[in-house]
Amino acid sequence: MDEPATTYVIRPAAPPVTEVDDREAVLLERIRRLEKINAALMDRVERSTDVHGNAYSLFQTAINLELQVRARTDELTQVLRRLEQSNEDLRRAKEQAEQANAYKTRFLAAAGHDLLQPLNAARLSVSALADVQEGEEGRRLTGQVDRALGTIEDLLKTLLDISKLDAGVVTTEVRPVALDDLLGSLGSDFAPIVAQKGLRFRIRPSGLHVASDPQLLRRILQNLISNAVRYTAAGGVLVGVRRAGAGSVRIDVVDTGVGIPADEQEAVFEEFRRGSARTADGQTGLGLGLAIVRRMADALGHGLRLRSVAGRGTVFSVTLPIAPAPAPAAAEMVARAALGSFGVAGARVLVVENDPAVMRATEALLTRWRCRVAAVRGVADAADVASTGGAPDIVLADFHLDAGETGLEAVEAVRARAGRPVPAVVVTANYSEDVARRVRAAGCEIMQKPVKPAELRALMAHILG
After folding, report:
1. Contact 118, 141 (CB under 8 A)
2. What residue ranges carry the coiled-coil annotation (predicted)?
3. Which tens digits make up the pLDDT trace of 365-422?
4. Integer Cα distance of 126 and 148 in angstroms
């Protein structure tokens, strides 16, 4: 049997060991280089990605911020529109409130005039009735009626004053006011009341002048003194003046009355808050006097202070600026000299009044004073009386007459017929400063309704003197 053939594979000879190592080293070096290049490329790619990612993120953030700003701007715009609408509503409400206040003031002024007309007639009639009373009972009853009418008068005047102060239609005329003259006049008014109650009443002179509105200041002090007298059963009332720092003076109204508890001292300045204090006869006030005092003091910029101890007394203080004393005018000196005469008997008086009740009451009162009276209703009749009966010594004219005429027109007509400035007193229930200014500009005296007979007689005597 033949033996199988043997196959021989011829392989190339293995390179030397040194050559293989060199190749591996080269390959490893290339691999390392490639790895470095790859790492560098990857780092560059990552950084590029981060940059683009940050830019995209910033872009997205900017878009979001813009959307938020736009949303907030829209909200703010809506809020501003609502605010503008609210302001417009407030402006309209303010206008309506001001109109309501103006309407209220005009209504109260008109109503006050209508209410004061019959009240004026009643007081004049009661005064004339009191003069003819011979019995004690008749005088007592007429006195009660007169006091009741006086209370109604004070209430109406105070309500009207409060409404005008609240509406801001009161204009103040600040000028130098002689305190001694003002306090002396108030002392004369209160002396009979204080004497009737058996109280001591003192006013300390100061010789000072203050800067204030004389009418409003008189009302303030009148209310404070009235309160002091009303709530003092024993002891007395003192009105003193003292300096209060540089350029200021303080007027103190001191009483030894019932006092005001500490928890009620702020409330007494509110309307219709009368507190627990009662007068000697067990009555309480109307609760308006101190309310009007505070409003008037605020309108004038005067300080108002209250100190009181229940059961021991009260001190009301008004602080106001000192004013230099004006030089006395010749007319003022003549007027003061004429105050010594109080005779009106025989005077020819022309009364111009459109209300029949007031006309009859005024005629009756003047007749009781032994005046020669002529009474007419309008301007033309007044001029006729001056032409046919001779010029009167004095004219008493109501401001508001029929058909839109005024008492000033009647006075002007009488003066034109007489050829001289006949003295005149204009009586009115209109408390506006415009009316007072027109009356003063016409050279007439003014009296507010209801007319107090004693004041009317004193004024007539002063003019005729």
Report:
1. no
2. 73-103
3. 888 888 889 999 999 999 988 888 788 999 999 998 988 899 999 999 999 988 888 9
4. 11
User: Of 215, 222, 238, whose CA–CA distance to 290 is shortest?
Assistant: 222
Q: At 445, is the secondary structure helix, strand, or coil?
A: strand
Which residues does residue 352 pair with via DSSP β-bridges, in sequence order? 376, 397
In DSSP terms, 393 is beta-bridged to none
pLDDT per residue as tens digits for the range 3-46: 555 554 455 555 555 555 666 777 777 777 777 777 777 776 66
Cα–Cα dist 454/342, whole Å: 11
No. of helices (H) and no. of strands (E), the chain: 11, 12
Question: Alpha-carbon Rg of the chain, whole angstroms?
Answer: 48
* CA gap 264, 271 in Å, rounded: 13
What is the pLDDT averaged over residues 112-127? 73
According to DSSP, the residues that pair with 305 across neighbouring strands are 317
- Which CATH code fits 175-326? 3.30.565.10
Q: Please state, in angstroms and as integers, the Cα–Cα distance from residue 377 to each residue in 354, 356, 399, 415, following that order.
A: 5, 9, 12, 17
Domain assignments of the chain as residue spans, ordered by start: 175-326, 331-464
* Per-residue tokens: 45: 């790619």
**Residues pairing with 258 in the sheet:** none
CA separation for the pair 236, 256 (Å, rounded) = 6
Return the CATH fold of 331-464.
Rossmann fold (3.40.50)
What whole-number distance in Å separates Cα of residue 396 and Cα of residue 445? 10
Give yes or no for a contact between 58 and 51, defined as CB atoms under 8 angstroms apart.
Answer: no
Structure token digits, residue 105: 């003031």
Helix axes 179-197, 214-230, angle to 10 degrees: 20
pLDDT tens string 280-334 = 555 555 556 688 888 888 888 999 998 988 888 999 999 999 998 776 544 444 4
Judge contact between 121 and 361, C-beta under 8 A.
Answer: yes
Burial of 31 (0-12, 13-18, 19+ CB in 10 A): exposed
H runs (alpha helix) in 346-443: 356-368, 379-388, 407-418, 433-441
